[in-house]
TrEMBL record:
It comes from Forsythia ovata. Residues 90-307 form the BURP domain. InterPro entries: BURP, BURP_dom. This is BURP domain-containing protein. The keyword Transmembrane helix applies.
Length: 308
């Protein structure tokens, strides 16, 4: 028997009339179940900031707009020498070959902690802005200064940051809004698909050595819209798209514990305009423009691509 959430999402997608078959609806729903795994903690807020800005956009914490939780000390050479587990996602493009072994961190969280997925009608009835934060905290019964309040404030700040040059960005508070926004980027008559990192079997270790099993498959896409979860009482996704020569890949992996992962990965081919203090350069021991920077996506990210 299908859950109420499944029936709700199926109904929404059918109304969107995107040309997807029922199998895709099942696939997207499975992705959304994985997507909604955020815990409302300040520590998780740091991980999200690191993931969204440091891994994806080329921004860095020394950017005044982004210095919210962590200072420069968090990414000191001493800290990076030991490597935070979450930083084990970066790699070189020449490492994408069969038999290559590398340590990778794939966060896996309990879906039972998922914040709810609201309909457009529900999300539109709730203010979503820094200006209205006191009212929002009162609405959800979170005291000012609490960890939850700080995480919500950071999410709203991220959503109100201006886009980078050449970037299109938005924060989605409902599935309908996300689909409409993706369609506006690709073209209103466009059909599109979603790519995610999928855990085919249960892995015990979050960080372990993985081996590439097959030749990585490049996914050709003229545009990419990547959506990342942010901590909030209900599901919020930070989505962005940028014209670039990035390369997207599907990578089949097996862990030391036998866990199988079909991972989504991206290689940023031109990093010449990235902040020299970007954490990826320190992890990979490189510099802006010297070589592509690649990273894996966690399972709670959605990567939208237009049909070829």
């Amino acid at each position: 028997m299908r859950s109420r959430r499944f029936l709700k999402i199926e109904h929404i997608l059918r109304k969107q009339n995107m040309g997807f078959g029922f199998g895709f609806l099942v696939y997207l729903f499975a992705s959304l179940l994985v997507l909604q795994r955020l815990e409302m903690t300040e520590a998780h807020g740091k991980n999200v900031e690191r993931e969204v800005y440091n891994m994806i956009s080329g921004r860095n914490y020394k950017d005044n707009h982004l210095r919210i939780h962590a200072g420069r000390d968090e990414y000191s050479g001493k800290r990076l020498h030991k490597l935070d587990p979450e930083l084990n996602v970066f790699f070189y493009i020449n490492e994408l070959k069969v038999g290559k072994k590398m340590p990778i961190y794939f966060p896996i969280k309990d879906p039972s902690t998922s914040p709810p997925l609201l309909s457009r009608e529900e999300s539109d009835s709730i203010p979503f802005s820094l200006e209205k934060l006191p009212y929002i905290l009162q609405l959800f019964s979170f005291p000012e200064g609490s960890k939850q309040a700080k995480a919500m404030k950071n999410t709203l700040r991220h959503c109100e940051f201006p886009p980078l040059e050449g970037e299109t960005k938005f924060c989605s508070t409902s599935l309908e809004f996300m689909l409409d926004s993706v369609r506006s980027i690709f073209g209103f008559k466009s059909k599109f698909n979603v790519l995610t990192t999928n855990h085919l079997t249960k892995s015990i270790a979050l960080l372990q050595n993985y081996t590439i099993l097959e030749v990585p498959k490049e996914v050709l896409a003229r545009k990419i819209v990547a959506c990342h979860t942010l901590p909030y009482p209900y599901t919020v996704l930070y989505c962005h798209s940028q014209e670039s020569d990035n390369k997207l890949f599907k990578v089949s992996l097996v862990g030391e514990d036998g866990g199988r992962v079909e991972a989504a990965a991206i290689c940023h081919m031109d990093t010449s305009n990235w902040d020299p203090e970007h954490v990826s350069f320190r992890v990979l021991k490189t510099r802006p423009g010297a070589s592509p920077v690649c990273h894996f996506f966690p399972a709670d990210n959605l990567i939208w691509i237009p049909e070829v």
